[in-house]
Amino acid sequence: MSKLEKLKEELNWLKVLFALLLVSNFSLLAWLVQNYFKESESDILYIASGTVIIIMIILILITKIARKKINELEDL
Q1: How many domains does the chain have?
Q2: Does pLDDT of 40 surpass 70?
Q3: 28-53 core/surface letters (b: 16 or more CB in 10 A; e: else)
Q4: Which tens digit of pLDDT belongs to each residue from 7-35?
Q5: Is the predicted pLDDT of residue 38 greater than 90, yes or no?
Q6: Domain assignment present for 53
Q7: pTM of the shown model
Q8: Residues 55/27, Cβ–Cβ less than 8 Å
Q9: CA distance 56 to 42
Q10: Helix, strand, or coil here: 39?
């Protein structure tokens, strides 16, 4: 497998991972908005809010990694 093919495969994998995390994050945000004013347990809301923040950080890291890979592709 050439370096070009390997980089393309890594970018495809990052794209799938990014999409899955993005959909999960939107679903979790929608759940938070629906349950914010309900009389639900606040612990669950805090855990969900923390999870949203963690997923956002992971999404930012994936974006940075993907940009590095794209720049490597330009050099080939």
Answers
A1: 1
A2: no
A3: eeeeeeeeeeeeeeeeeeeeeeeebe
A4: 999 999 999 999 999 999 999 999 988 88
A5: no
A6: yes
A7: 0.83
A8: no
A9: 21
A10: coil
Q: Which domain holds residue 44?
A: 15-75
> 4: how many CB neighbours lie within 10 A of its CB?
11
Cα distance between residue 51 and residue 70, in whole Å: 28
Q: Is residue 4 part of a domain?
A: no
Rounded CA separation 11/15 (Å)? 6
Decide if 2 is inside a domain.
Answer: no
Say what the alpha-carbon torsion angle 48, 66, 5, 71 is, to the nearest 10 degrees.
Answer: 180
- Percent of the chain surpassing pLDDT 90: 61
3-class secondary-structure state, position 40: coil
Evaluate whether residue 10 is within a structural domain: no
Closest CA to 74 of 15, 6, 4, 13: 4
